[in-house]
Write a structure and sequence with these properties.
2 helices, DNA replication helicase, DNA_helicase_DnaB-like_C, nucleotide-binding, 4 strands, mainly beta, 4-stranded antiparallel β-sheet, ATP-binding, P-loop_NTPase
Length: 96
């Protein structure tokens, strides 16, 4: 209505920790049903190494694979974009 973008951040519920597939989905938004319902665009980040590494064998690396999940898009397609995260520069790099 006012043509002003609003960015809202949300934590994920702990339900994601109890599933085999740890990729976040819309219903994982913690106590944020209104975000799921009203948002035009919902983006989520998923880093497989976060869930597959144990605290005792976590390796510190400058680069890590990240999936940018377009979970909801009222005006376009949903899907996944593969990115590389460069932690030393705090920068996401498109892999495609």
């Amino acid at each position: 209505e006012f043509k002003v973008p609003i960015i809202a951040l949300s934590q994920l519920s702990r339900n994601v920790e109890n599933r085999l597939n740890k990729r976040p989905i819309l219903s994982d938004l913690r106590e944020s049903g209104s975000i799921e319902q009203d948002a035009d665009l919902v983006l989520m980040l998923y880093r497989e190494n976060y869930y597959n590494s144990t605290s005792s064998n976590k390796q510190i690396t400058d680069f890590d694979d990240v999936e940018l999940i377009i979970a909801k898009h009222r005006n376009g397609p949903v899907g996944t974009i593969n990115l590389m995260f460069n932690s030393s520069c705090t920068k996401f790099i498109n892999c495609e």
